[in-house]
């Protein structure tokens, strides 16, 4: 298996960096090929601007989506962006590893997404009509690949529980897992989340490192989060609203967009499409 790990932490001596090394070493020990983009070490440019689109005339205003689409289709994006897109296409599995800062990913990783997930590559793909609304949410250029988050959190697990003051961790990660990874077609595995990392001693690190090793050992066989695919009958098109006749059980909020069918029903449903 080919694994692409995108790492975002500024300190090489950090717990996050140590966990990154644990993940890479275990993956390689299992015979997988691994590439790592250490964004801070690469001095990754995180702001998207005119410099990202060399083909754009200086006389034209910058409209990011259209400039991105033209740049991608004309092979006119910058070399650093093209290199990251090549890694995504090369990989069977993509891992994003980052500390949870202000309830989301660090700015440098968001900037990586902004620049690398170009129009025509990660979005703006496929036909839009009364049958389907583009190749997205379960379809797209990155479909057939897997993805997983490794996230370190300073707060307590209880703070991020269903009744915790910070909100459920599943909700906080939904925009990343569903909106960034599932959108261009990646199957998203449950995240590996560590809490109270600022208070973690050596003995606790050893325990968590072994748990991470176990997760990456099973990365090929773990079941993905059963997000609903956009063009498979669950949503009205083109409004993209969940159909009223869909059984959602007791789900509310973001969980509405997860399948509630059992495995055999879900497999049968997808084969019928």
From TrEMBL:
Give UniProt keywords alphabetically: Oxidoreductase
Domain of life (superkingdom): Eukaryota
Query: Which terms does the record give in the GO molecular function aspect?
Result: NAD(P)H dehydrogenase (quinone) activity
Q: Which organism is it from?
A: Talaromyces proteolyticus
Spell out the coiled coil positions from the record: none
Q: Does the keyword Oxidoreductase apply?
A: yes
Q: Which InterPro entries match?
A: Flavodoxin_fold, Flavoprotein-like_sf, NAD(P)H_dehydrogenase_qn
Q: Name one GO cellular component term.
A: cytosol
Q: Which protein family is it in?
A: Belongs to the NAD(P)H dehydrogenase (quinone) family.
Instruction: Kindly give the Pfam families that the UniProt entry links to this protein.
Output: Flavodoxin_2 (PF02525)
Instruction: Give start and end of each Flavodoxin-like fold domain.
Output: 1-214
The identity of this protein, by name, is: Ribosyldihydronicotinamide dehydrogenase
């Amino acid at each position: 298996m080919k694994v692409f790990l995108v790492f975002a932490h500024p300190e090489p001596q950090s717990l996050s960096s140590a966990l990154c090394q644990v993940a890479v070493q275990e993956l390689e020990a299992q015979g997988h090929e691994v590439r790592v983009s250490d964004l801070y070490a690469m001095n990754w440019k995180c702001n998207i601007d005119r410099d990202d689109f060399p083909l754009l005339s200086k006389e034209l205003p910058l409209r990011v989506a259209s400039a991105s689409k033209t740049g991608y289709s004309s092979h006119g994006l910058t070399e650093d962006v093209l290199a990251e897109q090549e890694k995504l296409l090369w990989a069977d599995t993509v891992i994003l590893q980052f500390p949870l800062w202000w309830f989301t990913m660090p700015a440098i990783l968001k900037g990586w997404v902004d620049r690398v997930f170009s129009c025509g590559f990660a979005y703006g793909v496929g036909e839009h009509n009364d049958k389907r609304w583009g190749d997205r949410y379960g379809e797209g250029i990155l479909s057939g690949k897997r993805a997983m988050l490794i996230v370190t959190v300073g707060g307590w697990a209880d703070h991020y529980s269903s009744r915790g003051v910070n909100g459920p961790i599943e909700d906080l990660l939904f925009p990343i897992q569903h909106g960034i990874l599932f959108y261009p077609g990646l199957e998203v595995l449950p995240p590996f989340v560590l809490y109270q990392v600022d208070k973690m001693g050596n003995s606790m690190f050893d325990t968590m490192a072994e748990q991470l090793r176990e997760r990456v050992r099973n990365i090929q066989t773990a079941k993905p989060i059963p997000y609903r695919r956009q063009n498979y009958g669950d949503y009205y098109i083109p409004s993209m609203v969940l159909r009223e006749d869909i059984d959602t059980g007791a789900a509310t909020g973001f969980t509405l967009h997860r399948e509630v069918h059992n495995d055999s029903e879900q497999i049968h449903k997808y084969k019928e499409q």
